[in-house]
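Priority: medium. Attachment 1 of 2:
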């Protein structure tokens, strides 16, 4: 726990022990605890950043071979991924996980930097400028990741519409009940009807389905890259400027809540 200063000293012949102790308020104590937790979480995150990036890279390679999109499209067609495309679904799922984790980690770093901003004073504010630059970069990265994240779920509705228009071969059964009253007797007649479609697809409808697959396959690829870039840019910035971020006014200047006393 950070040092929590107390009021004391001497007034005339009165010793410090005879003076009332001035303790920080409950809200300040809570803020100090929160600040320490934020720093501990951010420190652990940055320490493990290399392992996080390696895991992201491994997941990326698992889904994306590095071939041209036209080659990926042909692969989808060869495997007849019309009803559903498990490759795209898996890529989007892992990409969503990667982006969500990056957003969560950026929030940790954001809190860590925010709680180190000192009270406003005249002069000697270069360190504060560095802190604000770090927060601006984190905010920009988060906004980009949120846009990417919001875009990915649209794949399912877009593809569902394209598949509906495709007219895949299908069979369905419908049942109709008809009641007839004859005197005191009610007679119920049940009839069943089978319907089937030939599943003859028009070429352009087929291409529309695969075009959506490729579009969102590329979106998943972009999402992975955005998550990797967010880690690289923000962790690198914080590590390069740790001293200025943690001691914006130098080792003897105020840096956090304790500077209020």
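Attachment 2 of 2:
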């Amino acid at each position: 726990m950070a040092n929590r200063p107390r009021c004391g000293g001497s007034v005339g012949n009165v010793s410090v022990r005879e003076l009332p102790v001035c303790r920080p308020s409950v809200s300040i104590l809570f803020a100090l605890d929160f600040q320490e937790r934020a720093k501990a979480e951010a420190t652990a995150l940055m320490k493990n950043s290399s392992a996080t990036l390696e895991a992201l890279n491994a997941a990326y390679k698992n889904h994306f071979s590095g071939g041209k999109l036209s080659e990926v499209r042909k692969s989808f067609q060869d495997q007849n991924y019309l009803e559903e495309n498990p490759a795209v679904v898996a890529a989007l799922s892992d990409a969503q996980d990667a982006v969500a984790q990056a957003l969560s980690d950026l929030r940790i770093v954001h809190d860590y930097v925010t709680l180190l901003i000192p009270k406003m004073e005249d002069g000697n504010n270069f360190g504060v400028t560095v802190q604000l630059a770090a927060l601006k970069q984190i905010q920009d990265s988060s906004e980009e990741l949120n846009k990417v994240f919001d875009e990915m779920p649209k794949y399912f509705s877009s593809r569902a519409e394209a598949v509906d228009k495709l007219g895949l071969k299908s069979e369905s059964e419908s049942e109709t009940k008809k009641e007839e009253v004859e005197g005191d007797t009610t007679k119920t007649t049940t009839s069943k009807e089978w319907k089937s479609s030939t599943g003859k697809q028009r070429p352009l409808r087929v291409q529309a389905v695969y075009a959506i697959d490729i579009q969102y396959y590329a979106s998943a690829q972009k999402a992975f890259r955005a998550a990797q870039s967010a880690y690289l840019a923000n962790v690198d910035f914080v590590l390069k400027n740790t001293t200025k971020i943690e001691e914006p006014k130098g080792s003897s200047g105020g840096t956090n809540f304790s500077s209020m006393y």
